[in-house]
Amino acid sequence: MDTKRKSVDGTSLPTIKVTAEDHERLAGLASAAMDRMPEVAGYLADELDRAQVVRSGKAAVGFARMGCEVEFRDDTTGKVQAVTLVYPGEADIGQGRISVLTPVGAALLGLSRGQSIAWLTRTGAAKRLTVLDVREPAFA
Q1: pTM
Q2: Cβ partners under 8 Å of residue 89, min gap 6
Q3: Contact 48, 26 (CB under 8 A)
Q4: pLDDT digits (tens, 9 = 90+) for 67-80
Q5: At what angle do helices 38-50 and 20-33 cross, to 10 degrees?
Q6: Where are the beta strands (DSSP E) in the chain?
């Protein structure tokens, strides 16, 4: 795990967690998307490389993982939103279901309440977000 890397705004990257099941499935997703969406697939792969992998169960609560609803603040605008982190085929922005294969989705992955991360939008603009709350998925 490389915790010494810096985020796009020069700050240290926060420690993140990913369940073993999510890690395996998301690594395959990132690899499969490398030809179509190299920037975001590469970013997701980098996030997975630095993540602490945990088992499902009691250790797998309190951080943004697949199916969780994540409330976060865009630190640039102050706007607060709640989104559910999903796989690409389940994404529906109108329903607040955001794909992990988007820049903000990949940035949210593994973060816990109170953690912040800087990330780049598809247009290359630097943004920073802070997680305000993580709610467990309905299927948990």
Answers
A1: 0.86
A2: none
A3: yes
A4: 999 999 999 899 99
A5: 150
A6: 17-19, 52-54, 69-74, 80-86, 97-99, 116-120, 126-135
